[in-house]
Write a structure and sequence with these properties.
Layout (H helix, E strand, L loop, with lengths): L3 E4 L5 E8 L2 E10 L2 H6 L1 H13 L4 H4 L6 H5 L11 H5 L8 H12 L5 H19 L9 H13 L11 H22 L23 H10 L5 H10 L3 H5 L6 E2 L4 E4 L2 E3 L2 E3 L9 E4 L2 H14 L17 H16 L8 H13 L3 H8 L5 H6 L13 H12 L1
Helix pairs in contact: 6-7, 10-11, 11-13, 11-15, 15-18
GO biological process, one term: DNA recombination
GO molecular function, one term: DNA binding
Keywords: DNA integration, DNA recombination, DNA-binding
Length: 401
Amino acid sequence: MLAKLTSRKSNNILFIEFTIRSVRFRESLGIKDSRNNRALVKQKLDEVNADIIQGKFDLRAHFPNSKNIEKFDQLNMPTTFATTPEFEAETLTEYPSFRDFTKTWMEENAITWRTSHRKNVASIVRGHLVPEFNRINIHQIKREHLLAFRANLGAITDKNGQRKLSNARINKIMSILRAIINEASIRFEFPTPFLNIKQLKNNKSDIHPFSLDEVFLILRSVRPDYHSYYITRFFTGMRTGEIDGLKWKYVDFERKLILVRETIVDGNQEEDAKTSSSIRDIQMNQMVFEALLKQYRATGQKSDYVFCNLKGDALAHRNVTKRIWHPLLKRLGLSPRKPYQSRHTAATLWLAAGEAPEWIAKQLGHANTQMLFTVYSRYVPNLTRQDGTALETLIANHKEG
């Protein structure tokens, strides 16, 4: 992110603030914030931004007495690829710069991307890739540069000295870079430097589903206006974006189906679901059916969305998580878990009830049953072939007990 002038309310001192590879820096200019002083330091601000844009920013050169030099050195910024003799020696004009080709690549692919993915790609390109490779001719990027870049990503730490980017996030950044360079290698007929560069290993995140007793404890204790919401979450396995983006036109009471056709991501309504298999029809059990009938009486004439705020807009999941979900778990003495565990809970309850794996996979929007056995293997009993009625029996028995 380019540099900007800021000031601290406590002392009104001017700072130059900028971000390098997702790490924020604030450098004091030692003068008070005023219109005249801002004009005086404009040239300094322009010089900092020029070096950031050209990929050759060196903190020592601009702020030799900075307290952040050690933090900056972790980013290995002074030795950017753009300033090495190897890159200065060859300036073949028939090859575009990384920045120019990336711009073309994004424009060509934007039509195929969902809004959320488009924003994610733009963030990665702007925050990591262009600052690193910028004006380098794209064919000059070699294997050793890619490995060094990946290592630098892994070396980024937060203010507590903890690693900032997970392997999964680094793999995501590298996958965008791979797609850009591989496309360029096809068009301009040079060997891709990504050959045999494998992804970093991801530690499998363990799932923490709720037991049926815990589910009913939550449902008995949650605020009444969220009761139907959590019944639907726990007994359909819908993703957060799917349930928050669910509209009444996709609720078929006659056939007892929820039609997953849209999702909401970061406040943006997407016209298609996550994957082709995510576009599906979810069978309602009786409990979900009754909960949605009750919800229709509350919001059916008020909003297009099944679950909405007082204004009729879609729920903001971070707000719900912070204000409803986490306080509820804490009050009940349950271990803190992400709301996504409701999806895992639905899967494990279906498995425990002996539902058919193919039916469960279809309910969850999985292309096949592989993920069921990979993720939920320790929850799989002796499977029987059922069609969704087994959980109904399990719930009924639990209520009677």
